[in-house]
Automatic annotation (TrEMBL):
GO CC terms of this entry: plasma membrane
Organism, scientific name: Nocardiopsis flavescens
Primary localization: membrane
Protein name per Swiss-Prot or TrEMBL: Aerobic C4-dicarboxylate transport protein
PANTHER family from the UniProt entry: AEROBIC C4-DICARBOXYLATE TRANSPORT PROTEIN, PROTON/GLUTAMATE-ASPARTATE SYMPORTER
Length: 498
């Protein structure tokens, strides 16, 4: 028996129909995002002063996405949990999810500590720093209540609407879980509310589809700003530390996530190919939040049951930040090495245990990892100088990109693993999608999302059924053409047009 338990099999649920015609490369989002990134690099190198003022393009794109993230998470999580119809089942999924996230976070922190101690990027630098460079970060830490009590207090919003106004994902997640529990207890009386929330989530996905047309512009602005503002710092004394961090992130993805993926029965590199659009957007914007809704839709279309995706992805964005964990561990020890501070192995273990908690809840927004690192250093200020955070403020933008890419990959793998572990993964569909990633028509899914809800059998596994799915409904309400029939029920839409 597989180590992750019984997996749902597709039965007759194998995607049928002719192999879709390959889209021209210019019709893929990743093509235009790559162009945006390339142009941003060119402009940043050729016109650094002007490029330094283009950050607003990336910030505007991220802000547009963040407008709908909170309502999307609320609706999706509430519908997913309420759709289970069983609070015990939802609790079991939540418990397994947290166990998996905690284990991977500990591994990421440990790998970061091991790598930074072996490569020793800060030893011998004896760098001085200007505390004024870290003034804003330190001020943000001082305004935040630390410890477990502060973390728990931060989860509870001041009011129902304040969680959405402030964009606090943990608070939104808590409200969604509470509402889902209430809807489940209402039984049939709560079904109209569940349908309304489901419709609202479809509307939010439609808005995201429109916003994604501006992704190449956001990637251009973000990359131009990064190169124009901080390009020279890469060539300085911090280059080896950056290289050490990148190597560690690659090791975590290839080795740790690669082993986990193999144990779960799928290929890591095929998963990376599947989410290449999202990875490129994150590379350009340095924010994993910018693709959160797209990731939820893509994971559902890949064979993971909606209820599992609805709980795992949003939770992972707060509790499964592997890249941030690596950054925190390496950043703390690098500052100690660069300032000549001696940190014993037992202190490093204590730092690791503290960071397991402090890393949770760090948002996927660019720069949040720096504040989280500063909060951890504040707890060990007698060993590692907090003001030493000024040493890496200037290169945080470059580190943010690697953090976000690692976080996103970890959440994609984590969602598939949780689907396998809980038996809510249609393995035949996943195999089909990984072999033919272009068979997922994201335009149709983001517009209509008819395939977001998976049928569920008596044992909680997706019901197998034959399907021939279309990329979009026929225009003006006309009957679908042959081969473009609507799928039975709410299967994930897969483009099979010829």
């Amino acid at each position: 028996m597989p180590m992750f338990g019984r997996a749902a099999t597709a039965g007759k649920g194998t995607v049928t129909g002719p192999v879709p015609v390959k889209k021209p490369i210019y019709r893929h989002l990743y093509f235009w995002v790559l162009i945006g990134i390339a142009l941003g690099i060119i402009v940043g190198l050729a016109f650094p002063q002007q490029a330094a003022g283009m950050r607003w393009l990336a910030d505007l794109f991220i802000a547009l996405v963040k407008v709908v993230i909170a309502p999307t998470i609320f609706c999706t999580v509430a519908v997913g949990i309420a759709g289970m119809g069983n609070l015990a089942k939802a609790g079991g999924l939540a418990m397994r999810t947290m166990v998996y996230f905690t284990v991977t976070t500990v591994i990421a922190l440990a790998l970061g500590l091991v790598t930074v101690n072996i490569m020793q990027p800060g030893v011998g630098l004896n760098m001085s720093f200007d505390e004024a460079d870290a003034a804003d970060t330190i001020a943000a830490v001082e305004e935040t209540e630390g410890g477990i009590s502060g973390f728990l207090r931060a989860i509870v919003p001041d009011s129902f609407m304040s969680a959405f106004v402030d964009g606090q994902l943990l608070q939104v997640l808590l409200l969604a879980i509470l509402v889902a529990c209430a809807l489940t207890m209402l039984g049939k009386r709560g079904e109209p509310a569940v349908r309304a929330l489901d419709t609202m989530s479809h509307i939010m996905f439609g808005v995201i589809k429109i916003v994604m047309y501006t992704a190449p512009i956001g990637a251009f602005g973000g990359m131009a700003f990064t190169i124009g503002e901080h390009g020279s710092k890469v060539l300085g004394s911090l280059a080896f530390f950056m290289l050490s961090f990148y190597i560690t992130c690659v090791l975590f993805i290839v080795v740790v996530l690669g082993i986990i993926s193999r144990m779960a029965g799928f290929s890591l590199f095929k998963v990376i190919r599947l989410i290449r659009d999202e990875l490129l957007i994150v590379l350009g914007t340095s924010s994993s939040e910018s693709v959160l809704p797209r990731m939820m839709v893509k994971m559902e279309a890949s064979g993971v049951k909606k209820s599992t995706v609805g709980l795992t992805i949003p939770t992972g964005y707060s509790f499964n930040l592997d890249g941030t964990a690596i950054y925190m561990a390496m950043g703390a020890i690098f500052i100690a090495q660069a300032t000549g501070s001696d940190v014993s192995i037992w202190t490093q273990i204590g730092l690791l245990l503290f960071m397991v908690i402090s890393s949770n809840g760090a948002a996927g927004v660019s720069g949040a990892g720096l504040v989280t690192l500063a909060a951890s250093l504040a707890a060990f200020g007698d060993v590692i100088p907090l003001a030493g955070i000024a040493l890496i403020v200037g290169i945080d933008r470059f580190m943010s990109e690697a953090r976000a890419l690692t976080n996103l990959t970890g959440n994609a793998v984590g969602t598939l693993v949780m689907g396998r572990w809980t038996g809510t993964l249609d393995r035949e569909r996943l195999r089909e999608v990984l072999d033919r990633p272009n068979s997922i028509d994201m335009d149709a899914l983001m517009s209509y999302n008819d395939g977001a809800d998976r049928g569920e059998g008596a044992d909680g596994a997706p019901e197998g059924r034959e399907e021939t799915a279309s990329a979009a409904p026929a225009a003006d309400g006309a009957p679908a053409a042959d081969g473009d029939a609507e799928p039975d029920g709410d299967r994930a839409r897969v483009d099979t047009r010829t």
